From TrEMBL:
PANTHER family: CYTOCHROME B561/FERRIC REDUCTASE TRANSMEMBRANE (PTHR45828), DOMON DOMAIN-CONTAINING PROTEIN (PTHR45828:SF33)
PROSITE patterns: REELIN
Protein source organism: Branchiostoma floridae
Entry protein name: Defense protein Hdd11
Highest classification ranks of the organism: Eukaryota, Metazoa, Chordata, Cephalochordata, Leptocardii
Gene3D superfamilies named in the record: Reeler domain
Length: 152
């Protein structure tokens, strides 16, 4: 009995240790059953510059508390994995990126590769998990060719 209690305490403190599961491609939900998503607006944002077709843009996820897991899925373009990150093939090649370890982070910067030709506004679906028991449903941010900051 004590072993089960200890195991549940450890599991409750973890996000997926090696990234979002592939099923999160469908709806962005990390599948932390039986835990439901937090209510309200997610207290995390994506910031970065405007994109130029074919160029790299550094996008930073940050918020008001440390987090352990993340996933960003782009409607167009792709990602390049940095340290402790891996790309996912959801609807296209490398069109999503997630963590590969579940240690606390105050922010994460990822490299987004814009499509080769102009695509207008690009949707970025962000999901963040503080731990296994505290995550938000995905929120949509928009990356524009002309804006200085991504809007959510």
């Amino acid at each position: 009995m004590l072993a089960l209690v200890l195991l549940s305490l450890v599991a409750g403190s973890l996000a997926h240790s090696n990234g979002a599961p592939h099923q999160a491609c469908r709806d962005g939900v990390p599948n932390h059953h039986p835990v439901a998503a937090m209510a309200g607006t997610m207290p995390f944002t994506i910031t970065g510059g405007a994109y130029t077709p074919g160029q790299h843009v550094h996008l930073t996820i940050s918020g008001n508390e440390p987090f352990r897991g993340f996933m960003i899925k782009a409607s167009e373009g792709s990602f390049q994995a940095g340290a402790n990150q891996q790309v996912m093939d959801c609807d296209g090649t490398a069109d999503a990126i997630t963590h590969t370890e579940n240690t606390d982070k105050s922010s994460v910067t990822v490299t987004y590769v814009a499509p080769a030709s102009a695509a207008g506004s690009i949707g970025l679906r962000l999901t963040v998990a503080v731990n296994h028991d505290k995550y938000w449903n995905p929120e949509l941010f928009t990356l524009s060719q002309t804006a200085d900051v991504i809007t959510g």
